[in-house]
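Today's session is about reading a structure prediction critically. Students often jump straight to the picture, but the first step is always the sequence itself: look for stretches that repeat, for charged clusters, for runs of hydrophobic residues. Only then move on to the predicted structure, which in these notes is written as discrete structure tokens rather than atom positions. Here is the chain we will use throughout the hour.
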Amino acid sequence: MSCKFHKAIFHAILAAALYALSIPLSKLLLTQVQPTMLAAHLYIGAGMGMAILGLYKKKRHEKPLQRSDLKYTSAMVALDIAAPILLLLGLKHSPAASASLLNNFEIVATAVIALIAFGETVTKRLWAAIALITLSSILLTLDTTSLSFSLGSLLVLGATICWGIENNCTRQIADKDPLQIVVIKGLGSGTGVLIVALVIGETFASIA
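Below is the predicted structure for this chain, in token form.
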């Protein structure tokens, strides 16, 4: 395998590790910040951070987004408004460890939607992984004391489905400038979530 492939795998694992860290940290922040407002802060912060990075990385070889990419970009932003709200609401009603594990259902949602909507191939090994992740998600979602599904877990699963659809939308514009995509995703979705937070009466977090 090429060095470029190994580098890509490393970046994917690093991204997963950083995302895993964000779940328990978000759980801690929810004691001080309301969930929708926290989602807005996280996305706007990411968008601003990448925008600042873009100022220092002026020479980029990737193609910029075009008008033909608008439908996928709009869907990406809309889904990234819904997903973090669902996740953080779910975190308020479920343990951080369960929420982190349930986030693996995003793999299932991404693969199944890619198969149905875009005709991508799903191998036997991937089907086995999908079955195992689905089974584990059911076990994590089911409240064994009352044999009912946990509201918090269902909200987290809803977030993963939104991200699964969003992953497929982003895949359609993956050949375009990734920095531009992340800035649009962060600032666009973050602004949308912020509007939702203010409409439902949430307030800004304190500076501390």
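Discussion point for the tutorial: The longest strand covers residues 142-143.
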